[in-house]
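Deviation from plan, reported transparently: BIS(adenosine)-5'-pentaphosphate complex.
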Amino acid sequence: MFNLILFGPPGSGKGTQSERLIAKYGLKHLSTGDLLRNEIAGQTPLGMAVKNLMAEGKLVPDEIVIEMIDAAIENNTRVNGFLFDGFPRTTAQAEALDKLLAQKGTEIAIVLALQVSQEELIKRLLNRGRTSDRSDDVNEEVIAARISEYEKKTAAVAEHYKKFGKVEYIKGEGNVDDIFDLLCKEIDEKKVA
Ligand code: AP5
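Because the crystal trials were delayed, the predicted structure below was used instead.
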């Protein structure tokens, strides 16, 4: 199995690049943001419990997302590997993920970290907020809260994987195709090694 984490702040292009990467490498896309939004759309008890937190740009409690990912890994046994998007977002989530994968006899091969300036992130998300129905793109205050959560709790995840020499930084600004090529180059090098 080849498992990768596409990492980066809100609006850095994780979702955009994930779609292309899963098509090219045949990986199973696991986006905790998408899974949570599906719960909200389905008006499930879990969805109702997280709705306000997400609309405020705050992280959902670790136990909820870890349980969701555990179930998703269990339900996808015959896959080439997983692409984790928006997960892990705290050190506790990273440690739980490492444990879950170890139980399956596998591990994270690489963490690809997209780097985008704060100005560009805000511009992208406000722009999407004009047309999408994402409740967390509606205004600059919520976007700032998401970026602040990233800095306070999520940036540490890169430090966790750096200890194992697994993090590669990619400039996430500019043409989407060019960024995709840079990501593929890192994956191909890792797959050959
Ligand atoms: P999540 O759904 O993970 O969202 P996010 O991390 O805030 O990121 P986005 O989806 O907004 O951005 P992205 O990096 O995927 O970029 P995208 O490709 O979409 O999380 C949402 C919420 O769910 C969290 O705030 C939290 O509440 C909760 N949650 C989720 N996972 C959790 C977890 N593990 N633990 C706790 N809580 C969790 O691109 C953004 C925009 O930019 C798009 O319009 C796109 O078209 C555009 N764009 C992309 N690339 C480029 C480019 N190169 N140039 C110009 N524009 C571009």
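The CA atoms of residues 129 and 138 lie 5 Å apart. We consider this an acceptable substitute for the interim report.
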